[in-house]
Design a protein that fits this description.
CATH class of the largest domain: Mainly Beta
Radius of gyration: 63 Å
Strand content: 35-45%
CATH architecture of the largest domain: Sandwich
Order of helices and strands: HHHHEEEEEEEEEEEEEEE
Number of strands: 15
Structural class: alpha+beta
Oligomer: single chain
């Protein structure tokens, strides 16, 4: 019957056979140990640490690329946000500027409207809605408007009228107290008449001159000016004298110098000027229209000389 050898006996037998004891563990040996036991050289192996280094490098590279990509994307997003913010700010500024301009324009228009309204309110309504038309202008270089000239002799006066040296001159040789009128203009209802007049010789308190207007036969208005510094306005109608403006002092009247007289009539309203100064105005509707002319008034016993120039007559349309 066979006997089971013990471990000690097995080791002894192996030593006697000159076999390493480790061969008995062949089945448990690692590959490198098995190769060594055969006596052939083992192939070189890649160290673990080298493979680990390349893996780390690759991982770091991937991480770096990812970080770079994230940075690029973040930078692009930030740039886009900033651009949009700038565009929004610019749009806001433009909107604010437009609103400011709109407000300024509205205020300017309101101011301009207020100024226009105040200007219109300050002017007489007829002037703002009418157009001035020149009817007659005479500087008396020639008698183109057929003024009544020549010698005159009547029971109440004697004298002559002539155009000389660019003036319409009237010389009185005898007077019983009278008013003489020259009517060169057509009948008008609205008008602006101006005239330069001067007393060349005579007493300024007893020889006066002026403008007549809305003359109808023996009826007319008379704006009378005397070089003693006074003027008067009256109406002649139905063989009666009606005082509309009694004797009034006007400091604008010049003695011994030409005086520019002007009357403007619109409807029942009249304005009176002496040397560009508005001296008075009145309302009267007795005479609606009529002729416009030059008049002189001389007291009894006086022999004055008058000169007239620059007779200018306008009318108006759009009343």
């Amino acid at each position: 019957m066979a006997r089971v050898l013990g471990r000690t006996e097995i080791v002894r037998l192996l030593e006697q056979a000159n076999v390493p004891a480790r061969t008995a563990r062949t089945a448990d040996a690692r590959p490198d140990e098995a190769s060594s036991s055969s006596g052939a050289p083992l192939p070189p192996t890649t160290p673990k640490n080298r493979r680990t280094n390349w893996t780390v490098v690759i991982i770091l590279g991937v991480v770096a690329c990812i970080c770079l990509l994230i940075a690029i994307l973040a930078g692009g997003s930030l740039w886009l946000v900033q651009k949009r913010a700038q565009e929004a700010a610019a749009q806001a500024e433009m909107t604010a500027a437009a609103q400011t301009q709109s407000v300024a324009t509205t205020q300017a228009q309101a101011t301009a409207t207020a100024i226009t309204l105040s200007t219109l309110m300050a002017k007489p309504t007829p002037t703002a809605t009418s157009e001035q038309i020149l009817i007659l202008k005479d500087s008396f270089s020639h008698n183109i408007n057929r003024w009544e000239v020549g010698d005159f002799e009547e029971s109440w006066w004697k004298g002559n009228a002539q155009i000389v040296d660019g003036k319409f001159r009237v010389t009185v040789q005898r007077s019983a107290g009278f008013i003489r009128i020259w009517w060169p203009a057509p009948e008008l209802d609205t008008f602006n008449i101006s005239l330069d007049a001067q007393l060349i010789k005579g007493s300024p308190s007893s020889a006066c001159y002026g403008l007549t207007f809305r003359g109808q036969g023996d009826a007319y208005y008379f704006f009378k000016v005397c070089e003693n510094g006074r003027y008067q306005v009256f109406l002649r109608a139905d063989n009666t004298w009606y005082t509309l403006i009694d004797w009034t002092i006007a400091r604008s009247i010049q003695y011994g110098q030409p005086n520019t007289l002007m009357v403007e009539g619109r409807g029942s309203h009249f304005e009176f000027y002496i040397n560009g100064v508005l001296v008075n105005e009145l309302e009267n509707s007795r005479l609606k229209e009529g002729h416009i002319g030059i008049a002189i008034e001389v007291d009894e016993g006086e022999t004055p000389i008058f000169e007239f120039d620059n007779y200018i007559l306008y009318s108006f349309i759009g009343q």
